[in-house]
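Morning!

This is the sequence you dropped in the shared folder:
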Amino acid sequence: MPNNRIGLLVTVLMVILFLFPLNGCKHRDREVREKKIFGQQELLIGLIPEQNIFRQRERYLVLRKYLSERLGINVTFTSLSRYGNIIERFTAEKMDGAFFGSFTYALAHRQLDVEPIVRPVNLDGTSTYHGYIFTRKDSGIKTVGDMKGKRFAFVEHATTAGYLFPLAYFRDSGIKDIKQYLGQSFFSGSHDAAILAVLNKEADIGAAKNTIYDQLASENRRVEQELIVLAASGVVPQNSLAVRKDLDPELKKELKRILLEMDENSEGMDVLQRFGARNFMETTDKDYAYVYTLASHVGIDLKTYRYTNQ
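The structure's back. Tokens below.
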């Protein structure tokens, strides 16, 4: 009887050892069979220069690798030197998508018919931002009236926080010609540069998005000690990924699914942490209502809006 039991045990163990690798092979074979084949083997996504370009590239590097492995195609991010370049370069370089700022998205939607799919949720749980208008605490500036003849640091003509909001802010005070009202104005090219311009007394007043302002404040104590926020805009979506209208539907669907499900696996969670986000959330054109309202308020036709930064 003992021998029979030993024989039975050996048989069971052999069956288990046989089945486990077999099931593993079946699982791997199923993954291969389910791997999607898209109409293209590369995906080019643009990045606007909201902050120092080298820090931005480092942030998106981990996301690029994750998406390339999951999609099975080569994903490339290309950094733009200027905000406004996104419209021209999107077409010229045949980009498949871009992480648009709120105003550049509104322009691209009206002019190129791009479709928003997702945006990151910050580590603090927010997925939107708002614009700040700020000055030095020792500037003596408290109201719009105090700004007459002063130096103003904008970000770019194609930013909500760095141009559209302050434009509406002055318009609400009855000032339509800001160039004539201000002593000097210039475009810094990025939000952190506008903040530093005021901090270092290269400008008297500045405008930027609160997320970059708060980030700089956490890294540089002088921001909190020496600057003061005078006004804040309504909220708009964090930089969102939008894709061209004619992108392969299956690729668009899979890209969206992978990003939305990143927080459901350990590898994705690690990438999100290094990227600086909690997860990604679905985004639609309706989320940009405030941007459309601001543009209309200051008389900007998004369909035909063209400019040159000076």
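Headline: The chain has a mean pLDDT of 86.

More detail when I'm at my desk.
O.
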